[in-house]
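Q: Convert this sequence to structure tokens.
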Amino acid sequence: MAEQQNIRPPTVSTTILVVDDEPAVTKLCKTILQQAGFTVLDADGSSEALKICTQHEGPIDLLLTDLILPPLGFQLASSSNQFPHVHGHELAIRAATIRKGLRVILMSGNPDKELAGHGIKRRTLPFLAKPFEKDGLISLVREALAKPAPAFDLSGQGKAANDVDWFG
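A:
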């Protein structure tokens, strides 16, 4: 009986995919989130993030992505490209299509201009303004994980279908 008391159930860690075109931001987010107990995958752009969403065998619970993700180099657009370079909101839509139940946090250094430029209403998705503080990132991640995953409008309108008033 003493042996049974020493057996502990395995802990299940929440997995977060962090995507930013600035390596320093990706590294900062990864460090903060790992210290908070999360498992973190990272990508330096949308193409790599879509590959991870498609090929990663374990769960991915949350996508934390920069809104502006410029392509790494000159590339011609192609509808046959399975892993295209897209901006953060389009990445969120594509990733949520691949990974059902995926929660999303968008981040940006110039939120109002960039959100409006992509036709995204403020408060549609959780949003993290850069620069951010460690506690703010962790708190927003926990809040997003506690909410239902967004249902994206896949008609190409570029907005969440369930206009949920989550965070500002």
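The helical segments are 2-5, 23-35, 46-55, 88-98, 111-117, 134-146.
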